[in-house]
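debug: dumping io for the single-chain case to check the tokenizer round-trip. Nothing else runs in this session.
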Amino acid sequence: MGSYDIIVKTEEIRRRVQEGDFDSAQKIMDTMALKKVKNIADLSLLADVYIQNEKYNEAMELLNRVYKKSKTRRTLYQMVQASIGMKNIEEAELYLSEYEEVAPNDFSIFIFRYRIDKAKKEPYIILIDSLKKLKEYTYMEKWAYELAKLYYKAGMEKECIQECSDLILWFGEGSYVEKAKILKAYYSGEVDKDEIIENLKNRTFNTGKIPDIEENPENDIMPKEEEVQVDDEDNLDYVHEGDEDTFDETVEIDLHDEPEDQALDELAISVGKEVDMLMATEEESESENEDLERLGKLSTSLDIDINQIFGNFLHVKSIQKQLAKSLELIMSKRTKSVQMIITGPPMSGKTTLAKDIAIFLNRTGKIKTSKIAKISAIKLNEIDITSMKEELRNTCLVIENASELRKPTIDKLLELIKYFHGDMAVIFEENKKNMNRLFRECPKLMELFKNRIHLPVYTEQDLIGFAYSYITLREYKIQPLAHEVLREGVCEIISNTEKEKRLESITKYVQNAMTSADLRVGKQLPKLAAEGRLADVDVLSLLPEDFTNEITS
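debug: decoded output
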């Protein structure tokens, strides 16, 4: 296979990876002579595909080649992943130690620590400590549920019920919410094990799926690795999620434990295993691209280009799912007025998404303009919003730091929403922790603001995706040799920029490249015009030097 074929196939793999299609990416890789691939960025990409397809030994072979040349943060991250996947705990500890040196503030360290300690069969209290530290950085469905299970196994009733309650409150629906409801109900004594299993069997039967528990008692549902779509405002680092840890792990029971403690462990394993298996069966019914398909159908039915409106965010998997649900809710016949919450880290694009929502509302006829009125909660507390009725009609009111709203202001806002009855949209911007507090202080808001989108802490891959989206939405294209330069530039920004400024810095970096391309082409035009070769100009094409040139004018 020639070098050109390798370049073409690698770029196609890169495209498939950006779409989340790791299966077809793997099929392309299987036709390649990987020994001929020399580029470090390409080897890292191919290793990712192996990891996503749980081919850890093959991934490690590629990563060892990269490691000899460049011990980058990304490479070390992948080597920890692959080592854990191979169950090589000694290597995993070694690479995690190196990774901590280059990325001491990356919350994924706590996930790795948990997975390694779990493989070592460390006590529950140690596992709980890692997930509690993770929660301080970011709040994710999977790990919140895993923490609740650990509390359950450790006999920490109050903590388990509280963790389940928080998960249910924040995420509203989904498989982990269902599991949390079941665990909370069981722990609270509302239902017993047999009732839980019977109800789940009936539910899956009604959807035409019955898991064969009896014939496969040891079956462990282990979905493929996928990118973590993280949920808080404190970090901005590359992270992937590992195996789907389930209740049915092997638990060492101390012979000196009290009988009740042994029974608790055994019951946790038994109930949790069957619950996870039944819930996972339902999960298997989302094809990989279901959320994009839902958005595509919505585009067709509404005759608008959702990809063009929300293209900045659609490469992030967790946002795809949330956006599909949110837009479907907006377009529901039962939705008379639009009130929603956008949460996420500072500088994660909350206002950009709010503007996109306003455009969507206007193009679908929900409101008559795409105007946005943005104001901080503190300023809103100082004015009488009800006196601004006509100014706010047919606008999208975005309230920043919404948790700072005082009760009199909230009452006036609710009055205004009722008055307009759909002629104004209201969007709260906040972080999850503060919104949680506001909901507890004002339960009415929780009922009214059920439409929620959370922008996660972006991974390295997400941030690279933002760079590509920014380019393609402006109809520029990247020449093959410029891909590596772009990726290296983004990675350098991630390494050297404060986390809350990374997305903004990447946007400026890409905009500079486009400006450089425009200046480069502008200088060529007079000569090419004189030679009658204007047709040869590739106006919207980005070259490697465009990403390295400093813009001085």
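debug: round-trip ok. The two ends are 44 Å apart (CA to CA).
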